[in-house]
Amino acid sequence: MVRRKLTIALLALTSVSGFAWGFASLGHCAASRRQHFEDKVRDICAEAARQAVGAEPAATAAP
Questions:
Q1: For residue 32, is it within any domain?
Q2: What is the pTM for the complete model shown?
Q3: CA gap 39, 55 in Å, rounded
Q4: What's residue 40's pLDDT?
Q5: I need a labelling partner for 50 at 20 to 30 A (CA). Which of 4, 26, 33, 59 fits?
Q6: Which of these, 23, 63, 56, lies nearest to 40 by C-alpha position?
Q7: At 50, which helix (H) or strand (E)?
Q8: Total domains in the fold of the chain
Q9: Is residue 62 one of the residues assigned to a domain?
Q10: Domain with 10 in it
Q11: For residue 31, what pLDDT is reported?
C-alpha cells in the first residue's frame, strides 16, 4: 500500500515538473522561434517576388 502511494506521488510530481519545464522552455525560446519564422517568411516572400517578375531564383545558403 505504501509502495503504491509512493509510486503515485512520484509519478504526479514528475508529470507536473515535466509540464512546468516544457512551458518554461516555450516561454524562454519564443523570441528565437519568432525570429526564425519571420526570416523564413521573408525568404519565401522574396523568392515569390523574384519568380513573379521573372528573375532568376537566388541561391539559398544552408543554415
A1: yes
A2: 0.47
A3: 21
A4: 95
A5: 33
A6: 63
A7: helix 30-53
A8: 1
A9: no
A10: 2-52
A11: 81
